Amino acid sequence: MNVPERVVRGLDAYQQRHRPLAFAFAVIKKYGDDRGSALAALLAYYGFLALLPLLLLLVTTLGYALTRDPALGRSLVHSALADFPIIGDQLGQAIHPLQGSGAGLAVGILGLLWGSLGVTQVAQHSMAEVWNIPGVARPNFVRRLVRGLGLLLVLSVGVAITSVLGSLSRFGHAGVAGPAGTVASVVLNIGLYLLAFRILTVREVPTRLLVPGAVAGGVGWSGLLAAGGYLVAHQLRHASEVYGYFGSTLGLISWLYLTAQLTLYAAELNVVRARRLWPRSIVQPPLTSADRKTLAAIAKQEERRPEQSVEVSFDA
Q1: Domain for residue 272, yes or no?
Q2: How far apart are alpha carbons 146 and 90 in whole angstroms?
Q3: Distance of alpha carbon 32 from alpha carbon 38, whole angstroms
Q4: How many contiguous H segments (helices) and E segments (strands) does the chain have?
Q5: Whole-model pTM?
């Protein structure tokens, strides 16, 4: 055994002996096993495509619901777009409510709704990959469509409540609304993550197993929002000089990618904890029992038909 391998194996043995390190490494390892980066890229891409339809729906709905108070509608839209640091103002200037007759408007809204369902389909696929659900056990198209509509409803309610919380200072004392709004936002984000995980995950997984990841995701998302202005500004500082308007687009995609990564890591945390998939080994052989369980689940995930059965064995 050469010196570098001896050092790596020493680090491997150390992390396996210490539960917090072993658990954290297992989550990162599981993310890599499930090709998490590719899933996050898909979520960011389809999220980018769905963003405009969803914002059009939001602005159009608020425009009709708050015809007597346009200023309140603009305030709510501004609060909703605060989830997109730096580029939120540009999005607000580019989005305008749909106009037209009742029938034409209804067709337009249905088209926007259908166009935004792509991200919900990818999100369900990502959760199935994270939980290594065999293809034969995954929901069919109709069930995925219903779940997608349910997810959009949850997100819409979440955006509405977030927008109201963001506008509290308009109706009350800013010093009171600030801390209370922050705490309420964190609790809301945790609840939204839990509802989203419940909708996107197959029924066989109990809801109680989704709570730790929801807490991690909700707290992480709140922290990401708090630091989002700096993160996006740092990425856009040079990109805007080179790419101009496209620099903002790059910043938006980067923001969506960070959000997708956070969500997938939170979901992986649930899987690792529920199935006790730690400690994992850095160097193989030997494989730990958690390594074997993970690799076996990935292999059985490829079962596509009821007649098909995948059996997994290990030589050593």
Answers
A1: no
A2: 33
A3: 10
A4: 13, 0
A5: 0.84
